[in-house]
Description:
Layout: E1 13-15, E2 21-23, E3 31-36, H1 43-54, H2 56-60, E4 64-70, H3 74-83, E5 90-92, H4 97-101, E6 105-106, E7 117-118, E8 121-125, E9 131-136, H5 146-155
Parallel strand pairs: 3-4, 4-5
Antiparallel strand pairs: 1-2, 3-8, 6-7, 8-9
Amino acid sequence: MSGEVGSKAPSFALLDTDGNEYASSNLVGKKAVIAFFPAAFSGVCAEELCSFRDALADFTSVDAEVLGVSIDGRFANGAFRDANKLPFPVLSDYQKTTIADYDVVWPDFAGMDGYTTARRSVFVIGTDGNIAWKWLSDVPSDLPTIADVKSAIESAN
């Protein structure tokens, strides 16, 4: 199954907030933290992405990239990024292919029949391009522990 620890991280090419393509090939030879979040401008998502913002120096000190990914359009993601002063790419998976490839699809989100979004989840990718660690939420209000993400990125190949 895709998205499993030890497997090759699924490749992607998504639009950033400026409409430029950001491809997983940009991560070759680097460590990466990919944070999938359900919705721009929700309080819990802002709290999560701001915690990554506040810990960014810890990730860049070990040559790791941080990316946020949601199904929201690039315009909403851009406004969300600007409002929260996020210094890393926030990518739009509006076609929902990447959330499917990583197996983090959340159907009928928040009781909205037919509304599919990303399950709040974090993947740490090693320099070898493999998934070294993952965290999946059980409920939308769950947040990853930044200390656990830091530990995972430090120990990733």
